[in-house]
Specification:
Low-confidence stretches: 1-23
Strand order of the largest sheet: 4-1-5-6-7
CATH topology of the largest domain: Rossmann fold
Structural class: alpha+beta
Radius of gyration: 23 Å
Number of domains: 2
CATH class of the largest domain: Alpha Beta
Strand content: 25-35%
Order of helices and strands: HEHEEHHEHHEEEHHEEEHEEEEHEE
Shape: elongated
Number of helices: 10
Helix content: 40-55%
Number of strands: 16
Mean pLDDT: 90
Length: 312
């Protein structure tokens, strides 16, 4: 009888573990050409904010550079061969979605670069940025390469993989790139997964820019129920962050609050189901909560990691 009870307990524990694993979402990875590659090959464009800076033009790079497309595909295939749980986001699809919502984003007041818009539509957790250069000496070729894992929300680089591939008589950059990165891929993916698991525990960083629109009668000190507008916002963000982490990094005044980075959970439960969560979800929730309290507000998302909220 005791053995039977232990067996039933083990089965129950296994079922709970399996259920927990099903709830845990794998990292979504978008593979893109790195800025040095885009710059060297002319795949750049001016940022729309008048700053004079240039940004990567992923759409043109993918459309005009067949070798690049093959190289990115090789990286994606190798990642999935080593870890099939990682979700590779289709760059072409993200570009198409970004093209379709460009006008809508502009109408909502979002000043985004095309690169930020593509990243936002990818809904990726991590970018893998690829740069390579084919070196030829007579009949012999080598490839110089860099892969950089980057937080899609903050732009932080955290797992570089770089080096010089072996000499070969082949001259196909995509084939040479695969051979060059093959040996280092396990270590590279382990660092990506370690970073992502850290986000599971500590949350992902999102910046919030909250302003009172010009001409509004409200200030951050205006009453919303029993608290000030500032306190209402802080309470909401605390309740939808990981133990309020990041709320201390705030600058504010009578008409604005700027949070440099609030750590929000990667997932949330909606109607009993666990779903992926990003800046848009928390911003939408805050705007809805404000509306329920009689305060009108709008929001827009720039890239994936910055939410702009305007209180009317």
């Amino acid at each position: 009888m005791k053995i039977r009870l232990l067996a039933l307990a083990a089965l129950a524990a296994a079922a709970l573990t399996a259920g927990a694993q099903r709830l845990m979402t794998p990292p979504h990875v978008l593979i893109v050409p790195d800025m040095p590659y885009c710059s060297a090959n002319g795949y750049i464009q001016d940022a729309p904010d008048g700053s004079g800076r240039t940004v990567a033009d992923y759409e043109r790079a993918l459309a005009e550079d067949g070798t690049l497309h093959s190289a990115l595909t090789q990286v994606a295939q190798l990642i999935n061969e080593r870890n099939s749980d990682i979700v590779i986001v289709d760059l072409s699809q993200a570009i198409e979605l970004a093209r379709n919502d460009a006008a809508l984003a502009a109408a909502n007041g979002a000043v985004e670069t095309a690169e930020e818009r593509i990243i936002r539509n990818s809904n990726a957790d991590i970018l893998v940025k690829v740069n390579y250069d084919l070196l030829r000496t007579g009949p012999v070729s080598r490839i110089n390469y860099t892969l950089r894992a980057t937080d899609a929300y903050t732009g932080r680089n955290f797992a570089p993989l770089e080096g010089l591939g072996p000499e070969a008589t082949a001259s196909n950059p995509a084939v040479l790139l695969r051979e060059a990165i093959y040996g280092g891929m396990d270590s590279f993916l382990n660092r990506i997964l370690a970073y992502y698991n850290g986000m599971r525990e500590h949350g992902r960083m999102v910046a919030f820019d909250i302003t009172v629109a010009a001409g509004s009668a409200r200030t951050m000190g205006s009453r919303v129920g029993d608290v000030s507008l500032r306190e209402f916002i802080e309470d909401y963000l605390y309740d939808h962050s990981v133990d309020g982490s990041g709320l201390e990094r705030v600058r504010g005044g009578e008409a604005f609050l700027h949070y440099d980075g609030v750590y929000i959970p990667l997932t949330t439960t909606v109607r009993g189901r666990q779903r992926r969560q990003g800046a848009k979800d928390v911003a939408q929730g805050l705007v809805t909560a404000l509306a329920d309290a009689g305060v009108a507000a709008d929001f827009s998302i720039v890239g994936l990691g910055r939410a702009n909220i305007s209180i009317r």
